[in-house]
Amino acid sequence: AIGAGILATGGLGAVAIGAALATTGLGAAIGSMMAGPVTGVITTGSPNTFINLLPAAMVGLSTGECVMHAGAPIPVTTGAATVFINGRPAARVSDLMACGANIRTGSLNVLIGGPRQSPVCSALRDEQATFERFRVDAQAASAAYDPPESRTPPDGYRNATDDDLRTLGLKKSMLEHPVDPRTTKPTDFRAAVFINNTTNAPIVAFKGTSSGEDWKTNAAQGLGHHTFYYDQAQKIATNVRDSAGGESAHFTGHSLGGGMASAAASATGLPATTFNPAGLNAKTVPHPVNADIDEIHVKGEVLHGAQSTLPIPEAAATRTWALDPPGFISAATDPRWKVSAAGLLRASLIGAGIGDVLLHFMDNVDASLRQRQRQIQRSLVRNGCL
Question: What does 120-131 look like in DSSP terms, one character per residue?
Fold first, then answer.
């Protein structure tokens, strides 16, 4: 169970009380803003922060089961403006669920003060956390292009060791130039594995297009033909899923690598984040399952444009995130030539097409992600969330 105690009656009184009342925990009752019967309980909380021995509740990561919504997990949406648990606003009595219900019970002796976090601030903080995750995944997708001996892991991660790979059911020979059994020759396929420094959760990143062999794979997979690359990605994903630490894994990749990451997710049900990804032919994954796939592309980039207009497979996605390309001034001052050149070329009629091609590369994905993060930060300041 999660901590219970103070009972709030709802309405404006509950809002006022909520500024001083305690944080909630598992088992805390939820119900209407007006006085009435309890209609559900908080069921999930912090994995490592406890109040009176019960997991603390916070915005976004805590959910409740409400009988009005057929038992579906309903997230907490409002919380304290100044107190955070696991990086999320702490939830208290009278704070709201996504279904409109409010939290009605909480700890009797742990008080969290301050005003309620506004829905605008909660939404912005959720977006901030999402884009920080995307930024780290983008670092992993970029690092997959590099050979193991010169590979820099993403922030908060380390390169997987041989022991890490064994735990995940993998070997180096599966990741770096594996042999295609049909040709008996090494391929240009590459995947990189990174391990979170805190949680040990793995990221598997697939390399994108960088050779003629990669281009042949792009064409063959798009036409629905069998390819070693996509089979290998699914084999790696299945081994990871079935391993001891596989339940916390996710996949990522850019371009061809994004296509393989989406295939890995579709084959296993594990999540993926893809950047300007190749489309996924319906024949590529023989027995697809539902998977959580965030597809991120830069507006105007050439591959997404082709997928939108030509009879070729579209990117697999649960959610699609379209990023504005770097602004002219931002692009012109960026030290990476693909970013600055894309900005300058797209500003001219003659070079616009070349600029769209340059938007496909990871340098421009990274610049667009960072631009969006700066916009979110400004919105947090403008709305008084900081």
Answer: HHHHHHHHHHHH
Tell me which residue range forms the domain holding 36: 11-116
- 181, 48: one domain: no
Place of tokens 């084959």: 267
Q: Check if the beta carbon of residue 2 is closer than 8 Å to that of residue 23.
A: no
**Is the residue at 65 inside a domain?**
yes
- How many domains does the chain divide into? 2
For residues 91 and 251, the model is more confident at 251
* Tally of residues, the chain: 386
Closest CA to 14 of 92, 74, 81: 92
Q: Where a domain ends, among 68, 91, 116?
A: 116
Q: Does 326 reside within a domain? A: yes
- What gap in Å lies between CA 138 and CA 140, rounded to an integer? 5
Residue 354 sits in the same domain as residue 298: yes
pLDDT digits (tens, 9 = 90+) for 306-321: 888 898 999 999 999 9
Question: Mean pLDDT lowest for which of 33-47, 54-68, 211-225, 336-350?
Answer: 336-350
What is the residue whose two structure tokens read 């296993």? 268
Distance of CA 339 to the CA centre of its chain: 24
User: Are residues 319 and 239 located together in one domain of the fold?
Assistant: yes
Q: Within the chain, where are the H helices?
A: 11-18, 119-143, 162-167, 172-175, 212-222, 228-241, 256-268, 302-309, 328-332, 337-346, 352-358, 362-382
Can you give the CATH number for the domain in which 150 is found?
3.40.50
pLDDT of residue 121: 86
Which pTM does this prediction carry?
Answer: 0.69
Q: Please give the helix or strand (H or E) that residue 89 lies within, else none.
A: strand 88-89
Question: Nearest 5 degrees, angle CA 164-CA 167-CA 169?
Answer: 110
Q: Which of 116, 148, 165 is the last residue of a domain?
A: 116
Q: Which parts of 161-255 fold into alpha helices (H)? A: 162-167, 172-175, 212-222, 228-241
